[in-house]
């Protein structure tokens, strides 16, 4: 595996899931594989779960890890080809990525969208340039449009918890939030579920449609009640508008997930990628109750990252 | 050992001291013990000695270490049960602690008091919630009211330097400072000395009494001269008022420790946890002279942390 | 080797170069040497290449690495002897360096000049005090006046790329920049080239002479065209004025290095320490073309650091 930025980079999805579940049982079995190999983790935005789980995954494989918080350093990268750099950017991504590629065998990078200009964000310029110029395998730690390590962890969690003998119904439901939030987790979850053996239903208020490239094939409705009927899994997540790009269009009154709403489901397990705004996106009663899978999702982040890193190490 | 937050968490104090001194002689003897175990260090406040010494202690035991500077990330944690999180906090401590507990075998956490509301600080809400929700052993790297790794290092230093054949007289003396400083180090030192085989005398200006729960059993006086008589160890430390909570009540003129004052003592060794305000708390002549133990205290921080981590690893 | 702050600290320069090139071929051969040894990296200023390459070098030697970003912590160090510390500095360098020396076997430190007061900067007070008080070997990660790990990497790169059978002509040319930049890299490069088997020519606009202690022995001219004649290597770098200390005296129109200028050279290889302001210091066409050595320089940073650390470890 040369890059891991989307489900499109995975050639055998079921194989990767089984690999990750195998690593969960045998986390230190491949500790020789990463010996004398270095993972560089570059953060242009804050991170808690991704940082810790990816670091742990690498250590489980015997790798060294070096962390760079470029956001904290004020190390502003230029991305425009041909720029005359007499302004505020201190280094061109060409040079920074190429230099980092000299010190790292694999690079993980996190770079959120700015939510100002949709085309710019959806071009994934920074991620693509890192791939081009670093010349080493790149793992997305969440980019402008996707969060593929989260999605793999989500799929592991669903695989471990799905009802026997049926194709599970998975509902991705929009939830309220007070801030303008990227579409990444929702895009990515939809994209992965569409490749998995599940029935995907997406529900959100008017104006919150995700881009077709991620959702095509899923059932989409603005009627949350209807969507939740007989669901086996409910994935709760806020996102800002894709159409009216980056905007918060509604306070989302009535969209918070509660135990009352769970009554309509098939005693659905409830998922969220965290961090969660309690009692805004999801009620305390769900998060602290028996239907919540949020901690299992967090735990599976380690094995998702480990499976991806293992595949990359194997092709070196 | 499931938590290390106070001397109350130590069931055999003399045993722990001996263990630490044994590790000082044999720092790498137990390097297999921490193999494939991860220590997470979470800082909500700056740290130099604690960060480096605890990291080194863990590496001596073969552990992996992951550091999170939550203060630098602006990752504000909610601590109120049932909060509707539509404000500035981005994650509830319940979820953050539980997630971190998935990635770490032991967690160390530093969280200073705000010095605004005494009851809130002395409830140690953040530390207690971390213990409850992370589900892994917790080491305090200095909390709102105590600094137990410092106190163990202090006790090691006293043990190594005490005069033969007598119970040493240990004086904790208040010293001036220009800022409002927590009571943690003083509280903790008093609490530990009261459990050790020493005679403890505490001296401070009017209005600077520490809470009884830490000092009960010690002699307390506002007469520094009297307190210093025949002292074998003088522990110098500033703290803000406990009574008039968090306030600086005096410029402390005359309370700085000097060689002249040492004349009254039994050629006492002088201790301070560092960082020290030179020529405000303690004179250069003492810090640069033969009576200072401050660097031995700093060095012993490693073995204090290592003994605590070793005990935790042994019960896993 | 007890300290590495300048070429003066190297007793056999050719030997060190050969050692580094040997390590480049055998990076993990001495992995036992650094076992149970700890490198502390202290940054008072931002760093990308130095941080990653030095960390990697230490890991190649089996060392543990602890990183401290003192600039981010607001941990202001006092350097004045005898200071009454009732101001903004929180710890005297005496105590901070001595404490860090307890936890680290080798310390690397980066501290840029303030460019306000030449004498102060050129006294290298902070670096010298670290050497005095930490009591462990000190590696400069770029100080107020020199950048010796960069210079060793530069010399490695020249050694690998020099034309056979002749003493290469190396030209250090000043280039424009929009900010006031330290003289460190230029000072250091001149100092090293003067010790190496090359012909050194330095060219810069009026007012940009470097201090004699670094350049003595080299040819210096303000005529860039003349300097570039038959050059084998062109090292491009901006620096602020040493004479009119820290000032930017000209916009440097016409001093940017371009392919047109390379016509005058012996098809010279072009070097820069990075980060580079593209199309201000150096044109895209050079950086993206076949004459650029900038990535080889970045790569050689690892082996420069590894050779220095190896020498220090061997004398412990």
From TrEMBL, chains A, B, C:
UniProt-listed Pfam families: OTCace, OTCace_N
Enzyme class: transferase
Function (record text): Catalyzes the transfer of the carbamoyl group from carbamoyl phosphate to the delta-amino group of N(2)-succinyl-L-ornithine to produce N(2)-succinyl-L-citrulline. Is essential for arginine biosynthesis.
Highest classification ranks of the organism: Bacteria, Pseudomonadati, Bacteroidota, Cytophagia, Cytophagales
Binding of carbamoyl phosphate, residues: 47-50, 75, 110, 147-150, 273-274, 301
Keywords associated with the record: Amino-acid biosynthesis, Arginine biosynthesis, Transferase
Name this polypeptide is given: N-succinylornithine carbamoyltransferase
Domain Aspartate/ornithine carbamoyltransferase Asp/Orn-binding per the UniProt entry, residue ranges: 185-310
Complex and partners: Homotrimer.
EC id: 2.1.3.11
InterPro entries in the record: ArgF'-like (IPR043696), Asp/Orn_carbamoyltranf_P-bd (IPR006132), Asp/Orn_carbamoylTrfase (IPR006130), Asp/Orn_carbamoylTrfase_sf (IPR036901), Asp_carbamoyltransf_Asp/Orn-bd (IPR006131)
Domain Aspartate/ornithine carbamoyltransferase carbamoyl-P binding: 6-160
Binding residues for N(2)-succinyl-L-ornithine: 142, 177, 237, 277
Catalytic activity as recorded in UniProt: N(2)-succinyl-L-ornithine + carbamoyl phosphate = N(2)-succinyl-L-citrulline + phosphate + H(+)
Pathway note: Amino-acid biosynthesis; L-arginine biosynthesis
UniProt source species: Pontibacter rugosus
Family per record: Belongs to the aspartate/ornithine carbamoyltransferase superfamily. SOTCase family.
Gene name of this polypeptide: argF'
Domain of life: Bacteria
């Amino acid at each position: 595996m040369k890059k891991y930025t989307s489900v499109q980079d995975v050639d055998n999805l079921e194989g990767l899931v089984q690999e990750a579940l195998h690593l969960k049982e045998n986390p230190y079995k491949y500790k020789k594989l990463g010996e004398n190999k270095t993972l560089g983790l570059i953060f242009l935005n804050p991170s808690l779960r991704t940082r810790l789980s990816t670091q742990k995954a690498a250590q489980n494989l015997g790798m060294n890890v070096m962390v760079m918080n470029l956001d904290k350093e004020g190390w502003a990268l230029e991305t425009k080809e041909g720029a005359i750099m007499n302004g505020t950017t201190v280094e061109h991504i060409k040079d920074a990525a190429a230099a980092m590629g000299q010190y790292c065998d694999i690079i993980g990078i996190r770079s959120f969208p700015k939510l100002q200009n949709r085309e710019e964000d959806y071009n994934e310029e920074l991620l693509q340039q890192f791939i081009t110029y670093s010349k080493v395998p790149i793992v997305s730690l969440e980019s402008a449009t996707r969060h593929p390590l989260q999605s793999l962890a989500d799929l592991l969690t669903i695989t471990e918890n799905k009802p026997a003998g049926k194709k599970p119904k998975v509902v991705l439901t929009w939830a309220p939030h007070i801030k303008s939030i990227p579409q990444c987790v929702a895009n990515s979850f939809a994209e992965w579920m569409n490749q998995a053996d599940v029935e995907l239903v997406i529900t959100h208020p008017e104006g919150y449609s995700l881009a077709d490239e991620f959702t095509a094939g899923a059932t989409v409705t603005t009627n949350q009640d209807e969507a939740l009927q007989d669901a086996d899994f409910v994935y709760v997540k806020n996102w800002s508008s894709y159409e009216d790009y980056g905007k918060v269009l509604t306070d989302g009154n009535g969209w918070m997930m509660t135990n009352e709403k769970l009554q309509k489901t098939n005693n659905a397990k409830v998922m969220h990628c965290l961090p969660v705004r309690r009692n805004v996106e999801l009620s305390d009663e769900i998060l602290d109750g028996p239907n919540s899978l949020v901690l299992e999702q967090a735990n599976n982040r380690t094995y998702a990252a480990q499976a991806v890193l293992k595949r990359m190490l194997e092709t070196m």
